[in-house]
Every structure is written in C-alpha cells, then in structure tokens.
Amino acid sequence: MMASVMTPFPFYVEPEDSLRRAREMMVQHGVRHLPVLKHHELVGILTDRDIKRALDPDLGLPPRDGLFVNDIYVRQPYSVDVSVPLDGVLDHMTRHNLGSALVTKHGRLVGIFTAMDACREYCEHLRKLSPRTGNEVA
Q1: Angle CA(68)–CA(73)–CA(76) in degrees, nearest 5?
Q2: Which pLDDT score, from 0 to 100, does residue 35 have?
Q3: What is the spatial distance between Cα 50 and Cα 54, in angstroms, rounded to a whole number?
Q4: What would the pLDDT profile of 17-37 be if each residue is shown by its tens digit?
Q5: What is the pLDDT of residue 62?
Q6: Which own/partner contact pairs does 75-80 have at CB distance under 8 Å and 24+ positions apart?
Q7: How large is the C-alpha radius of gyration of the chain?
Q8: What's the start-to-end Cα distance of the chain, in Å?
Q9: How far, CA to CA in Å, does 57 sit from each of 22, 23, 36, 66, 102?
Q10: What does the alpha-carbon distance between residue 98 and residue 57 come to, in Å, rounded to a whole number?
Q11: Cα–Cα dist 21/58, whole Å
C-alpha cells in the first residue's frame, strides 16, 4: 500500500504562484516535484524538469519573472488512491517514464510517491534480505 512508502503532506503550489516562488520552494525543501492545488483540489504537478524547460531561451517564453505555475504545470497528473498496491504504481511509473505519483484519499491529496521514495523502499527491502555485518562502506 502507498501509505507506508509515500511522503505524506507534500509541499504544494497554486496555479497563480510565480515560477520563481515554485523554484524557491523546491530548492528550500529539497524536492523536485510540487503538486498543484486550486481551491484545495488537485489539478496538476510541477517538476523541476518543467521549470528548466520553461526557462530555456530557445522556447521563446516570457522572462523568468513573467512565468507562472499555470503556464507550465502538467494537468491531469498520475494519481493513485492510497490503497493501491505499490507494484502496480511502480509498473505504471516505469512504463510511462514518470518520476512521481500523487497519492490521494477520497480524492484529496495526502502524499506523493517519487522515484526517490522507490529507491529508499528498495534499499530497505535489500537490507532485510541481506543484513549488513557493519564492515561495508555506505
């Protein structure tokens, strides 16, 4: 189940927020994905990759200070109910080259599951299979 492996209560932005504010939040909190909420309803996701693309001068978009989350966020993001089995989520993320899944309960955002969460969970799984002796280099 997703509840045991997701990051609960993720930071989020709203469509009207500036891209600068969103980027500052990502840097401040060390995250690469921000759910986008409008009136407390999940409407999309913004990633650091989206921001980097938007700031590419070859795209001809407005200057950095003239861009807002609404200009670039991904609508209809991949979201799953908290009760969905992890293997199905991982399979979907892998097949569609996704870095995250937004986790909901009764349609409300409760968490986010990222590739980093998957790495952490896999690491714990491997450690349970083969406990270390304490002499290994981390």
Answers
A1: 145
A2: 96
A3: 6
A4: 999 899 999 999 999 999 999
A5: 58
A6: 75/43, 75/44, 76/44, 77/35, 77/42, 77/44, 77/45, 77/102, 78/102, 79/42, 79/103, 79/104, 80/2, 80/104, 80/113
A7: 17
A8: 28
A9: 19, 17, 24, 13, 30
A10: 25
A11: 22
Structure tokens belonging to residue 65:
């200070």
The tens digit of pLDDT for each residue in 81-131 reads 999 999 999 999 999 999 999 999 998 999 999 999 999 989 988 999 987
Query: pTM of this prediction?
Result: 0.83
Name the residue type at position 48. Answer: D
Which of 11-15, 54-58, 61-65 is the least confident region?
A: 61-65
CATH of 2-129, one of 3.30.1330.60, 3.40.630.30, 3.10.580.10, 3.20.20.370: 3.10.580.10
Instruction: Return the domain boundaries, the chain.
Output: 2-129
